[in-house]
Design goal:
With about 260 residues, this protein is mainly α. Helices cover about 60% and strands about 5% of the residues.
Length: about 260
């Protein structure tokens, strides 16, 4: 698989306004979350376009603290059009997972598959302030190819992209101040993406004899550590408990260093 572009952690957008232009452009091009329910031919074409530097402006040469993890999964940290890189990275990661699932099949349960595919729709709904009207869930294929390396890489890349969306959403919570509807929108998006991230890692390990591998602490984990108290203070208790439960799920099964959270 070719290198996968992600923003340097310090460049992850912090407000939805910073993503609206890129999101609107992708919608106009037919390259938003709806592409995930398109035909396989359309999806392959969409991936080529999204990967093109003629569509998404990006600047190479960035390197983060987690360079060993990036090297392991073929991730290249970039700058440039932050909104374009951010959104296209999420979509490319999803397209790679869908292609791998079609070629190799998957044992991920239907409910978990829906959880995985809801996150990009939730992201575009949030950024564009669209009414939530549901989504079209593409049933994974039942292919029989043996592609364990590609499976692990696709799932882990999607996990990393989703954790950047969590960082973006949590930044929105911290910066929303007294805008209660925005706080709830942001924490709802963060929760949806944490749940999807857990499924992405399950997908990465969904091979015969596969086992979940501990995920080392990333910049996104460190950021969550720093602002967890602010999130607890800003978010209604019920919403925070949902967020905390999703974070615990990710922690309990997959992370090597606890991200201990409390609803108290």
């Amino acid at each position: 698989m070719e290198p996968f572009r992600l923003l340097h952690p310090d460049l992850v957008p912090q407000r939805r306004e910073s993503l609206q232009h890129a999101a609107s452009t992708l919608v106009q091009m037919g390259l938003d979350d709806t592409v995930l329910s398109a035909s396989p031919v359309h999806q392959r074409l969409a991936r080529v376009v999204l990967q093109s530097s003629g569509v998404i402006e990006w600047t190479p040469g960035y390197r983060g603290q987690d360079s060993d993890l990036d090297d392991r999964f073929g991730v290249v940290r970039v700058g440039g059009d932050r909104g374009g890189v951010f959104l296209s990275g999420v979509l490319i990661a999803y397209l790679d997972v869908l292609e791998n699932a079609a070629r190799m099949g998957t044992s991920i349960p239907e409910d978990s598959w829906r959880t995985l595919l809801w996150a990009p729709t939730a992201l575009f709904d949030h950024v564009l302030r669209r009414p939530q009207v549901g989504m079209t869930v593409v049933t994974p294929g039942c292919g029989t190819e043996h592609l364990p390396f590609e499976r692990a890489q696709a799932g882990q890349r999607l996990y990393l992209a989703l954790m950047q969306v969590v960082r973006f959403a949590v930044s929105g919570v911290v910066r929303a101040e007294d805008d209660c509807p925005l706080v709830e929108d942001c924490v709802t998006l963060a929760t949806a993406c944490l749940r999807a991230a857990a499924v992405a890692l399950a997908f990465a390990a969904d091979v015969p004899g596969g086992a979940s591998q501990p995920v080392v602490e990333t910049a996104e984990h460190r950021y969550l550590w720093q602002v967890l108290g602010d999130v607890r203070s800003a978010v209604p208790r019920a919403r925070f408990e949902q967020f905390a439960a999703a974070l615990r799920r990710l922690n309990d099964v997959y992370t090597s260093r606890p991200l201990l959270v409390s609803g108290g």
